[in-house]
Here is the input.
Amino acid sequence: MIETEVLVIGSGPAGSTTALLLSTYGIKNIVVTKYRWLAETPRAHITNQRALEIFRDMGIEEDVKRLATKQDWMGNTVFCTSLAGEELGRIQTWGTHPRRKADYTLASPCTICDLPQNLLEPIIFAAAAERGTRPRFDFEYLSHVQDDSGVTTTVRDRLSGEEVRIRSKYLVGADGGKSKVAEDIGLPFEGQMGVAGSMNIVFEADLSAYVAHRPSVLYWVLQPGSNIGGIGMGLVRMVRPWNEWLIVWGYDINGPAPEMSDALATEIAHKLIGDASIPIKVKSYSIWTVNNMYATALSKGRVFCMGDAVHRHPPTNGLGSNTSVQDAYNLAWKLAAVLRGQAEPSLLDSYDEERTPVAKQIVTRANQSIGEFGPIFEALGLLNTEDPEVMREHMAARKENTPEAARQREALRKAIAFKDYEFNCHGVELNQRYTSVAIVPDEEPDPGFSRDKELYYQASTRAGAHLPHVWVLKGGHPVSTLDIAGKGKFLVLTGIGGEDWVAAAAAAKQKFGVEVRTAVIGPDRDYEDANGEWALAREIAEAGCLLVRPDMQIGYRAMRPAADAKDAEEKIFGALAHILGRKDKIAVDKAA
Ligand SMILES: Cc1cc2nc3c(=O)[nH]c(=O)nc-3n(C[C@H](O)[C@H](O)[C@H](O)COP(=O)(O)OP(=O)(O)OC[C@H]3O[C@@H](n4cnc5c(N)ncnc54)[C@H](O)[C@@H]3O)c2cc1C
Here is the structure.
């Protein structure tokens, strides 16, 4: 029997990131994956700031950036009749509009970028293997049995046919949208699979003549049939600028799936490009369905599921791989803390509490975004006809000098602008705030969000929120507050006058065996707040304190300075005991 601490099923973004984090934290792990290699098709591509922050924490952000298409080239999302045809409208996307760019720049040290999944996965996976993960390709998960001390999993070596048993303390099911692990532990799901039919066609073609002057990663095509199935409209998606592409086209889920062939794939590609003279090399095609389903519990005992295994949704909003990476970031430090004996297993309950609402939110948002293409079809008068001639007439009507045409133009502008909820949905990407056993309830009443919480990220130091990013200075060089946190460790962040918190953090190491790093922000301290941005962001008194968890979420905040050293100790010990579920807990309410 092979033994390890954590067995991870699946090497997609969720499984690879879990393995990388565990290995970085010094936890033994094995990843088994069914196929001979990692993702072979581009699949996910939008890589949002939260996912990049995790890669930054793991030291692989630069590797990702080196291969990625930059934000500057992601912005001109076009709606057209074909790439060669008429452009109907545009929206500046992924934070590239000057009015939104500041929001994105202020929110994070990382810049959103585009990297196809088949290029991203090897970066994460190689780093995991380098740091100690033991990979097993062509190994298929079959079943598992758990008991009080661990999990025994049976996998099949698909090359030899041999069955192998692996004993681990914990099992992570990161085995994608058809997760057998989730099925085996009987996770409850809400929603529906297979709500629309879709196909991907990956091809090589030099399309620079049609796109280089309006660089984007998404070109949406309105043609007869483009509102049937699929993801709301026909899509030509950039894979590599400007010679590799992925088309998403729909089919009626109530009928049979189309019989795909190179010829049909080429025909569809030429139709969406609008120029049949462009040479095309079809690389692959696949049929898939749009799903609208999320789990309402993510774990059972020693088995935890994550990624598409628990949230199954279309690619709209680009949330799938990003959320999978974030699931891993939430769970990995908790597994490490429990396995090191620093936390009680009850800490692991917080994984479900914190990530279940996110699963529901992203599945709902991604599906809603498909429906929100409707008003564009409506504005152009395309809803009640499939006749190409009538469609052309209705679209052309908006060019007239009539009040009706002016209304049509206005409706189209509004319908396109509303797609902000898919393409500039910064709040959905970054606003996750947790309430769980691993967060000490905040002292202050929750003021809520001052702007639309889907569209806009609102930084906060409330307990449960993500540590705000601010550039502070170290020796005159800018350092993000996020760079001070993370690395698998707790952090106490305070200002001048907060020295009692720092002493309490040092004492916590002795009391709990948990290393709590510290940082004092102020003149001639660890970091300087030269431009006063931290003072604006911190919301607490200068000598108050934030206790930041290893996943950069704030686990506890003290609004005011500690009364004295004893008070600081009681509060920090109490907060750590609360978060880690330790029996030697000091009631933080009493201390507060
Ligand atoms: C066209 C398209 C575009 C997309 N665009 C985006 C985007 O822009 N941004 C975004 O964030 N997301 C996007 N997504 C979604 C994204 O691809 C998924 O959400 C993401 O891959 C989920 O990661 P995962 O690790 O949970 O699962 P997967 O990547 O599906 O990985 C599952 C893993 O489990 C393994 N496995 C499965 N069964 C077994 C078994 N029995 N035994 C062993 N191993 C097994 C597989 O081999 C694989 O390694 C897109 C998806 C598609 C199809």
In short: The longest strand covers residues 189-204. The two ends are 50 Å apart (CA to CA).
